[in-house]
């Protein structure tokens, strides 16, 4: 609903190896200049303000495009995955209940299901997958 069918056809027919987020900004700039020449924008200061705001918005879009262009290196995901699993293993062993007053032979670890540690692991692993 932001473009006419004719504008959409021009936009789709435009060949570009990258995203075409900049095309509507060029159209806006041309329309604003045309409106100034026709007297619809009465003051050059108003035109300058419009163009400054448009350029600010365009720079935000290009910054977002830059974030999309540069992917996260694979080693970061591997390091985070290793850290999550290592943390879970350390918590699984370290959070075992061991009552030394009971005089267990060799102070073996108790075998029980650490529910909160498992929940913590599921949350971390879920966030990791996201």
Automatic annotation (TrEMBL):
Alphabetized UniProt keyword annotations: Cell membrane, Chloride, Chloride channel, Ion channel, Ion transport, Membrane, Transmembrane, Transmembrane helix, Transport
TM segment ranges: 82-98, 110-127
Main subcellular location: membrane
Keyword RNA-binding on entry: no
Cellular compartment(s): Cell membrane; Membrane
Catalytic reaction(s) noted: chloride(in) = chloride(out)
Topology of this chain in the membrane: Multi-pass membrane protein
Statement: the UniProt record of this protein carries the keyword Protease: no
Role played: Forms chloride channels.
Similarity remark: Belongs to the anion channel-forming bestrophin (TC 1.A.46) family. Calcium-sensitive chloride channel subfamily.
Protein name listed in UniProt: Bestrophin homolog
